[in-house]
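Sequence only, no structure available. Ideas?
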Amino acid sequence: MCNCDKNKVVEVDALYYPMEGTIVKVEQMTEYEKFFEIRLSDGKELGNMPGQFVQLSMFGIGEAPISVSSSPTKEDKTTFEICVRKVGTFTNALHALGVGDKIGVRGPFGRGFPVDELKGNDLLFIAGGLGIVPLRSLIRFVMDKRRDFGKVDILLGCKEPKDRLFSNEIEEWARLADTNYTCTVDKSDPEWKGNVGVITTLIPGVDIDVNRTYAVIVGPPIMYKFTIMSLMDKGLPKDRIIMLLERRMKCGLGKCGHCQINHKYVCQDGPTFRLDELTGMGEAL
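Reply:
I predicted one. Tokens follow.
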């Protein structure tokens, strides 16, 4: 007779074999980005933590890693949310789906943001472009547990004002106590009244207590280099700078090797990393 833990068997199966998900909401956010809300067909919770991702699949199309943008603190825990940019075969096919369509779901995968470590500290969120999508999961977690955290600053950068994601939602968060939000664009339009320039132009204006602040950065690789330099110029230590790396992830299980950087697998050891964990790993940044 097998004495194995049936719950553990189910958890393993969820990692290797797709669960059926049903799309319950679709929203066009920009010309290239769509928002999806997905419910697992068995009615179970996804059980993700902020910063984790799932593997979505479509028969005859393939599979792709997608960041979860919702927080586990959301009211309806039977669904999870994603926001996807249309950039290739899989994402084009995903954008063609609508409410009621089915999709395969594996996961969640990876190491999420260290929420327990962040508690009691001031937080500086820095998102470039599509980086706001995975960072939203952590921001929403913090906002739902606002008393557990100190001052919050949110810096958002994008190419043009029309490219902003979740802007109305972020502006609502900014109205909470001790929460500040600033957005910058590379190219303005006649109605834009905010900052114009790269996101590092916003960092000097943020008051940082280096002994009680964590910076969380999500964005394109080129942004990391100069953002890290700006934060270290303000005296923020490496163990208080957290990044999310998503490049080249494929299987989610650390088996295919696509996301290996030196001795680390981004899909398993990450995708969140403290800067001090990446010392000597130039390929990571």
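The mean pLDDT is 88.
Hope that gets you unstuck.
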